[in-house]
Design a protein that fits this description.
With 155 residues, the chain is α/β, with parallel strands linked by helices. It folds into two domains: 6-76, Transcription elongation factor, GreA/GreB, N-terminal domain (Helix Hairpins); 79-154, Chitinase A, domain 3, CATH 3.10.50.30. The protein has three helices and seven strands, in the order E-H-H-E-E-E-E-H-E-E. The strands form two sheets. A five-stranded mixed sheet has the order 5-4-3-7-6. A hairpin with a 2-residue loop joins strand 6 (137-142) and strand 7. Helix 1 (10-39) packs antiparallel against helix 2 (48-72). The longest helix is centred in the N-terminal third of the chain and has 30 residues, at 10-39.
């Protein structure tokens, strides 16, 4: 992820920092204890508990590296200074399409949750909205074809 800007809300940053802290101070020591307990059981070649604990440790370490990489190049979204005239990262927008009205918030990929209306600035939908104004028609290419949206509000 080197060179890529990772956009986060201040809340998203706190969540990631807390997760990183929990992984380092709680989960790694817990798994280290599991590994030691499994080693005490004997033959490591056929010791399922030992291999499961080692796999768990590898997954935790992978997540730690992922979070640390995200935090190396983070840009905090200052919601108080968002330009309400054009869609940008951090904007909440109300749009209308042939499927009705919908509200989306443009967030960084780390915080994206499309089912909750949080769309990534890197997604086709997010990219299509960026830089547009209220009243603009935006056509988004999706697997089922093209969908036309009209931007009703930028909050």
């Amino acid at each position: 992820m080197t060179g890529k800007v990772n956009y986060l809300s201040s809340e998203g940053l706190k969540k990631l920092e807390q997760e990183l802290n929990d992984l380092k101070t709680k989960r790694i020591p817990e798994v280290a204890k599991k590994i030691e307990e499994a080693k005490a059981l004997g033959d490591l070649k056929e010791n399922a508990e030992y291999h499961a604990a080692k796999d768990e440790r590898a997954q935790i370490q992978g997540r730690i590296y992922e979070i640390e990489d995200i935090l190396k190049n983070v840009s905090i979204i200052d919601e108080d200074s968002i330009n309400r005239d054009i869609v940008s990262v951090g904007s909440t927008i109300e749009v209308e399409s042939n499927k009705g009205k919908r509200e989306y918030k443009i967030v960084g990929s780390t915080e994206a949750d499309p089912l909750e209306g949080l769309i990534s600035n890197e997604s086709p939908l997010g990219k299509a909205f960026l830089g547009h104004k209220v009243g603009d028609k935006v056509v988004v290419e999706v697997p089922a074809g093209n969908i036309e949206y009209i931007i009703l509000k930028i909050k």
